[in-house]
């Protein structure tokens, strides 16, 4: 059987890492993310299509960790990779893709790149408008970037 990334334990680790980040437990989050990254690195390239969504989530977590650690440029690279992983298999108005774009917008706004940040935030906002019942955590970065850019 191929080395699959998505298993109950790895899915739980993704959730646990996100919880640690939300609670500000950056060292704990870093440990979970490193373990997930090590497992992801062992997957054959032809298997990545199967794990594309999880790989994008992992890149998002890595970006969030970098952003919370005061490294917005490094965070932006991870958020870009998350978008690259999502694009081939997500609808243009996907809440997952919108959330990834909002994450990148936040990182770019933090670096001072207001023009690209606004453009990505507008794309995310338009996508979220087509999904009025999307879970609040998807919109978290968009709300933060709007505050940073002083937009409502």
Secondary-structure blueprint:
Elements: H1 8-22, H2 26-41, H3 52-68, H4 72-86, H5 95-111, H6 114-129, H7 136-148
Helix pairs in contact: 1-2, 1-3, 2-3, 3-4, 4-5, 5-6, 5-7, 6-7
Tag the structure with descriptive keywords.
mainly alpha; 152 residues; 7 helices
> Number of helical runs?
7
How many DSSP E strands?
Answer: 0
Biggest sheet statistics: none
> Percentage of helical residues?
over 70%
Poorly predicted runs are none
Nearest-integer average pLDDT:
87
Instruction: Note the gap between the termini.
Output: 50 Å
Which sequence of SSEs, written as H and E, runs from N to C? Answer: HHHHHHH
Provide the gyration radius in Å.
Answer: 15 Å
Give an account of the 3D structure.
- The chain is mainly alpha-helical.
- Helices cover 72% and strands 0% of the residues.
- It contains 7 helices and no strands.
- The longest helix is centred in the middle third of the chain and has 17 residues.
- It is globular, with a radius of gyration of 15 Å.
- It starts with 7 loop residues before the first helix and ends with a helix.
């Amino acid at each position: 059987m191929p080395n699959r990334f998505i298993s109950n334990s790895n899915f739980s680790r993704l959730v646990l890492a996100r919880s640690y980040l939300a609670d500000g437990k950056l060292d704990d989050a870093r440990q979970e993310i490193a373990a997930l990254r090590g497992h992801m690195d062992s997957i054959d390239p032809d298997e990545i299509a199967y794990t594309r969504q999880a790989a994008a989530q992992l890149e998002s977590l890595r970006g969030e960790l970098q952003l919370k650690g005061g490294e917005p440029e490094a965070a932006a690279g991870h958020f870009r990779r998350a978008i690259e992983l999502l694009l081939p298999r997500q609808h243009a108005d996907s809440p997952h893709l919108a959330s990834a774009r909002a994450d990148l917008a936040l990182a770019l706004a933090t670096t001072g790149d207001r023009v690209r940040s606004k453009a990505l935030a507008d794309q995310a906002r338009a996508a979220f408008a087509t999904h009025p019942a999307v879970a609040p955590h998807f919109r978290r970065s968009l709300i933060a970037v709007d505050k940073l850019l002083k937009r409502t």
